[in-house]
Amino acid sequence: MDRHGNRWRERDRYHERADRNLNRDRRHFHHDYERDHHRARGGRREERSTSRESPHRDRSRSPVDTNVHRPRYDASLYLERVPIADLQTVAVQPEFNLVSRGNGDKISPVRRPDKGGSLAARHIRILVNNFPITFNPETIIRHYDVDIKPEVPTRHSHPVRLSKATLSQIKEKLFSDNRMQFPLSMTAYDGEKNIFSAILLPCGTYNVKMSSREDSKDSSFRCTITLVNELKLCKLKDYLAGNLLSIPRDILQGMDLVMKENPARHMISVGRHFYSREYLEADDLMCGIAAFRGFQHSLKPTSQGLALSLDYSVIAFRKRMSVIDFLKEHVPGFNISQFARYRREAEQALKGVKVTMTHRKTKQKYTVVRLTKESARSISFDCENSEGKTKKINLVNYFWEKYKIEIKYKDIPCLDFSKNDKKNYVPMKFCVLVEGQSYPKENLDRDAASMLKKLSLPPPHIRKRSICDMIRSNNGPFGDVSQNFGIEVDMNMTKVVGRVIKPPELKLAASNGKIIKIEVDKEKCHWNLIGKSVVDGKRIERWVIVDFSASERNRFNCNLFIQKLISRCRNLGIRMEEPLFYQEATMSMFSNVAALTELLEEVNDRACRVGRWRPQFLLCVMSRKDIGYKHLKWICETRVGLVTQCCLSFHANKANDQYLANLALKINAKLGGSNVELFNQFPHIDGEGHVMFLGADVNHPASHNKVSPSFAAVVGTVNWPAANRYAARVRPQLHRQEKIANIGEMCLELVDTYARLNRVRPQKLVLFRDGVSESQFDMVLNEELQDLKNTFSEKDYRPTITIIMAQKRHQTRLFPERDVDGGPTGNVPPGTVVDTTVVHPFEFDFYLCSHNGSLGTSKPTHYHVLWDEHGFSSDHLEKLIYSLCFTFARCTKPVSLVTPVYYADLAAYRGRLYHEAVVEHSPSSMASSFSSMASSSFSSIGSNEERFCKLHTDVENMMFFI
């Protein structure tokens, strides 16, 4: 064992074979198992068990056998589990991270220390959208690489990048021409480089001729098929039984693609989602847009074996219809006889849209670049006749001579598909929108957006029914192909027994300032502040109002608002004085960075003169939401050193008690106050020594942005034992890089801040990491953790560390099996924990639904422990995380994501705002410096950070980001 008590383990023969296979395998496989994509948001100390399980315990016992002696255990709730496959699980060492000598001393995630938690206020029966999978362990899936290239080389020998649609068409032609050698029902294709087959396929090079449109020659392609791997499912069986250290990800990827083949052939594929080709009449969003229903699914290893996790999804698509009909629906008042009047709206609606032609037979898709400046009647172009001579011909005449078609609307523009200096104009009448083109939800009008949101957030009973219908559908993941691979799916949701953890008791203050203990509402787990005060209210003596709505029609009622805010703050135990002064401004200043900077510096200087010190915060009143908000935050937090609190004049003029209380809570937290604390200490880590909770996250640019940097943020508590005040560090890094560069340096800065404030370094660190999928756990353990430890060691600092992943991007949903098990909305109650059956076979993970689901179906957070030097049990860690969810400063209820991660997400997003502010309104040299970061080194990233994103020293240790 190493110095941390981690068990060393020799690599087994399967591990060696996996490495060899993976090295041979091509790196073009784009279906990385269970990679997660974009984010939803929305205990108290228990006595620690004095006994530990034997490391040689029998893990094959049923839940009934292992839980009969637990406190508050209801044996009638636990159903005897029927094994999905004949799997023998082996004894594993609890609490230790396993290290493989033969694999470069790589660390594997920590093993589960027990058989799940036992403490609960009550037990409930739950249905989980996991569908058990059975497979034949003797099956071998062959993985082939398919390389498709044009037979005739292109000019200048530049490689041609074929679209996925073209590649799929060529592959289909190859298979249809050779049905006996390439049976379609025995293969699965990812649309690019990979084919998985249930049988041996003949390798070699094949010529495929594709018929093109009638006015061009046929195309020939060379398809080279090569066997690159044989995936033996017995290896997956061994992993599920606990006999393998490393997950056979290549096998899961292959099986995952097999399960996607049936919906891929019959449905519209968007990323990892599949949607029906038809929409319900009730789902028409009007304006040429409709809501299409579908699903997303993935395979995952669980304690009951392999399972398919499937969840319901909705997206807005442009309807498949003619371009002219689309314009009639989409552009208000559109009249084709008065096209010039609507030209701008029509061009905006069609730009970038893909269409197909109706005047000739072709499957080719064209993207609208613009509308032609001239009408169809006026367009002429050079055309080569049958004799090889070039002559100029009118577009109207061309269509009559070539297709015997008369253009009906001659006085409107054509669609311009010109590409690479090659002109291509087609009348709108002959163009139809391609199906499956998503429409940005932010561009929907209010009614359509509201309807789409309602469809996207169905209540639990409707979502559960939709999921069951989809798994049983002929277009679902279970079809002929998966059966031919020996894969079977149980169509019934998995039944589990969940535990509802008792919420922690909280600490507030009475109106006289005396600390009191409160119990939260048992149903919704919220608390109110009526007649109560915050635990520690900061005295606010120096603050300024900057009113950007001064010149607007519905301007800010300053005097009334000030008196109400001061009164509400004082009722909450926050001693607020009158503002130093009131400064008028205009909303137009948000678009002028120089003027805004001058204003804020002037306000700061004036406040220093009046109040003899820097203002504690600025209250910035805005008449509406404005993109200049990012400029305000960037200037104040990186240049001037001011904390700001923004509000809209519309809400401020109403100034109801709840709104004012929310403002007061945010202001108090930003200034270093304490709104609410746990009455008792955190479980398990309440002994001697300080503890620091850390949260880390990365904010990536939008998918269409190819150059903008990603932003990493690490936040950490700076007080103990309350552990509810945080400092943050934000750094830009390489474009779309998930690994946090220099995470050790960022954490060390936070530790030094803690030491300055508390005169002692924390002896225990608990780091919550967000934003990574299972395939990236190795990166966190063997790169980020090592960076952390190396950085600490250089400063002779060796705290104990626990690393926990927090995942919201997964498909798992929990549904109460009976009405009595759910709340008023039909969701599982707050504090619901599931840590058996649907969790990992032997790693330490669980699902926790910490919030009250008031809208739609609650999504639990999946917590996965990767490294643990504190010896947490399931009960300890579940209570600890649930307790942390109650310390979020902005509200009076538990949040859905553990607070350190929630704060890290907010801080990383603030880094994104800084970048956008710099790029949009700074000198071009600064913008280009940021944009070049996609290919720059880490040293240049650091210099950029110093110039543009480094927080002002007066702000960096405050909770400016909430």
Properties at a glance:
43 strands; globular; alpha+beta; Rossmann fold; Nucleotidyltransferase, domain 5; 962 residues; paz domain; 11-stranded mixed β-sheet; 8-stranded antiparallel β-sheet
Question: Can you describe what's shown?
Answer:
- The protein is α+β, with helices and mostly antiparallel strands and 962 residues long.
- Among the domains are: 323-434, paz domain (Beta Complex), CATH 2.170.260.10; 537-670, Rossmann fold (3-Layer(aba) Sandwich), CATH 3.40.50; 688-811 and 820-918, Nucleotidyltransferase, domain 5.
- Helix content is 28%, strand content 25%.
- It contains 22 helices and 43 strands.
- Strands 37-36-35-38-39-43-42-41-26-4-40 form an 11-stranded mixed sheet, sandwiched between helices. Strands 5, 11, 12, 13, 14, 15, 24 and 25 form an 8-stranded antiparallel sheet that branches.
- Helix 12 crosses helix 16, helix 13 crosses helix 14 (629-640) and helix 20 (899-921) packs across helix 21.
- It is globular and about 95 Å long.
- The two termini are 43 Å apart.
- The model is unreliable at 1-96 (pLDDT under 50).
Short description:
The chain is 28% helix and 25% strand. Strands 37-36-35-38-39-43-42-41-26-4-40 form an eleven-stranded mixed sheet, sandwiched between helices. Strands 5, 11, 12, 13, 14, 15, 24 and 25 form an eight-stranded antiparallel sheet that branches. A five-stranded antiparallel sheet has the order 7-8-6-10-9. The protein is built from 22 helices and 43 strands.
CATH fold description of the domain at 688-811 and 820-918 = Nucleotidyltransferase, domain 5
Looking at the overall shape, the CATH architecture of the domain at 688-811 and 820-918 is 2-Layer Sandwich
Radius of gyration: 31 Å
Any idea what the CATH superfamily of the domain at 688-811 and 820-918 is called? Ribonuclease H-like superfamily/Ribonuclease H
Give the terminus-to-terminus CA distance: 43 Å
Query: What is the C-level CATH assignment of the domain at 688-811 and 820-918?
Result: Alpha Beta
Shape: globular
Work out the number of β strands. 43
Q: What is the count of DSSP helices, taking H or I runs of 4+ residues? A: 22
Q: What is the averaged pLDDT score?
A: 86
Q: Per DSSP, what share of the residues sits in E-state strands of 2 or more residues?
A: 15-25%
Strands of the widest sheet, in order across it, are 37-36-35-38-39-43-42-41-26-4-40
Task: Classify the helix fraction into a percent range.
Answer: 25-40%
Structural class: alpha+beta
Report the sheet with the most strands, covering strand number, pairing sense and barrel closure.
11 strands, mixed
In terms of per-residue confidence, which ranges show pLDDT below 50 for 5 or more consecutive residues?
A: 1-96
